[in-house]
Specification:
By secondary structure, this protein is an alpha/beta fold. The protein is built from five helices and seven strands; from the N terminus they run E-H-E-E-H-H-E-E-E-H-E-H. It is 25% helix and 17% strand. The protein has a seven-stranded parallel sheet with strand order 5-4-3-1-6-2-7, covered by helices on one side. The longest helix has 21 residues, at 231-251. The radius of gyration is 20 Å and the shape is globular. The N and C termini lie far apart (72 Å).
Length: 252
C-alpha cells in the first residue's frame, strides 16, 4: 500500500527553496512557524513589502492537470489540512488494512520533511530527544515504521544542491520531471502550508482540491480558517484609515 502526500508549496516558486533568484530575494526569507500569526496575520505585511518593492505578488503555478499522472487504487480518498505534520498520523490501518506501514510514501514538496540536522544530529538523536512530530520531520514516523521514502522536489527548483539537503533518514530525492511513480496510491494527503503559501493562493488551493479525482474530506483533527482573510483588503483598509487620520489631524 502506498501514500501520496502533496504540499501546496510544491507549486509556489521561491528563491529560498531553490527557485530562480531575482533582485528582491530578501522578501522571501520568511520566518515560518505554524501558528495563527504566521499563517494569517503576517501576510498583510509581506504583501505591503512586495508592493513597496514594485513587484507583482508571487503566485502558485503548475497545479493544473497535476493529478492526471498518477494511478489510484479503487476507493482511494483524499484528506487535507493546513499542516503536513498530520501526514504522520495516516496509516494503512486507517483504511482497514492489516499492514503495519506503507510500502512507500511519495512526497511532492519544496522541502524534504525528513528531519533537519540544524535540529538534530541524527535519526537516533531525534528519537531520543522526545521532540515529536512537526511539519519538518513527519516523514521520520514513516521511516521508523519501515516505509520506503521518496521526495519529489518541484520542477522550478534549479539544482538539488541549492539548498543542500541532508535528511536524517535515507530518502530518494529527485526534481520532478513529470514521470509518475510506478505504484498505485491507496490514500492521498494534501496540505495547504499556510505559513509558506500566501492567502491570495487560497482560491487556487480550493480548485486544486476540487480537481482531484476522488472523494475529499478535511482531516478530522485539523483546525484552520479557509479561505483566510484577504491581506490586500486589510492593507487597503488600513491605508484608507491612516489617510483619514492624517486628514483629521491636518484639519484640527
Amino acid at each position: 500500500m502506498n501514500l501520496l502526500v502533496v504540499d501546496w508549496d510544491f507549486f509556489f516558486p521561491t528563491p529560498a527553496a531553490g527557485g530562480p533568484r531575482g533582485p528582491h530575494d530578501e522578501l522571501f526569507n520568511w520566518p515560518v512557524t505554524e501558528d495563527e500569526f504566521h499563517t494569517e496575520t503576517i501576510w498583510e505585511a509581506r504583501l505591503r513589502d512586495f508592493r513597496a518593492a514594485g513587484i507583482d505578488l508571487p503566485q502558485v503555478e503548475g497545479w493544473q492537470g497535476f493529478w492526471e499522472r498518477f494511478t489510484f487504487a479503487p476507493g482511494t480518498s483524499l484528506t487535507y489540512a493546513d499542516s503536513n505534520a498530520w501526514a504522520a498520523h495516516l496509516w494503512p490501518s486507517d483504511l482497514g488494512a492489516q499492514a503495519p506501514a506503507w510500502d512507500s510514501v511519495h512526497l511532492y514538496d519544496a522541502h524534504h520533511d525528513a528531519g533537519y540536522r540544524t535540529n538534530h544530529d541524527s535519526f537516533d538523536a531525534w528519537k531520543e530527544s522526545g521532540d515529536g512530530i512537526r511539519c519538518e520531520n513527519w516523514m521520520l514516523a514513516h521511516a521508523w515504521a519501515g516505509s520506503d521514502l521518496h521526495v519529489h522536489f518541484p520542477p522550478w527548483r534549479e539544482s538539488p544542491a541549492r539548498p543542500p539537503e541532508s535528511p536524517l533518514v535515507p530518502v530518494t530525492m529527485t526534481i520532478d520531471d513529470g514521470t509518475p511513480p510506478a505504484v498505485s496510491f491507496d490514500l492521498v494527503f494534501v496540505c495547504r502550508s499556510g505559513a509558506w503559501v500566501p492567502p491570495w493562493a487560497d482560491g487556487a488551493f480550493s480548485e486544486f482540491l476540487r480537481s482531484a479525482p476522488m472523494p475529499r474530506t478535511a482531516f478530522h483533527r485539523n483546525r484552520w480558517v479557509h479561505p483566510r482573510p484577504d491581506p490586500a483588503r486589510m492593507a487597503d483598509m488600513k491605508a484608507a484609515l491612516y489617510r483619514k487620520a492624517e486628514e483629521i489631524a491636518r484639519d484640527s
